[in-house]
Amino acid sequence: MLLVLLITLGGLVGITRVQSKNEVDRVLTALVKNEGHLSPCNAHAAFGNQNDSINRNFLGGPYNPEAVYQYRYFAVTVDASHRVTVVNDNNVYQVNSTKIKSITRKALSDHQDSGSIDVGRNQYAYRVAKNSVGQTMVVFLNETLIYNRFWLLFRVAVVLGIGSLIVFAVVLKIAK
Predict the structure, then answer these.
(1) pLDDT tens string 46-68
(2) pLDDT-based confidence at 102, cuts 50/70/90?
(3) Measured in Å, how far apart are the chain's first and last C-alpha atoms?
């Protein structure tokens, strides 16, 4: 019984975790490709290969143009003199221009092409790339909202697993 629970619930939780990570990667890729902007017209990449029936039906899900509005993100450019310019901050709440510049400097100080950074109670994934004019561009995506589904499923799996084991133990005790 324990093995079945571990495989079933662990598999569901593991798949959801991988899906969440892949979604973050796809949305960051779409943001980089579209220089910090997502719209229903340019966000197809965020939903993966729609010609692949497994992706469309199980992994990324079918493309829905309205879905782009669920993401919270911002984008900046950094010129050769390290001046940070906010390109798009229309899709975040309570993260002002000054905070965005500070977050960008902190992310760039890690000298990584991608990573995560805490902003208040949220965690933002970021990716560094070059834009169409050769400037350094950094896009940030609130991944906390995406991973909320994973954490909810994880908590439910733990409760269901413990509950199932208790019921199984009671049934075994009664059967003796």
Answers:
(1) 566 666 666 555 555 666 778 78
(2) very high
(3) 18
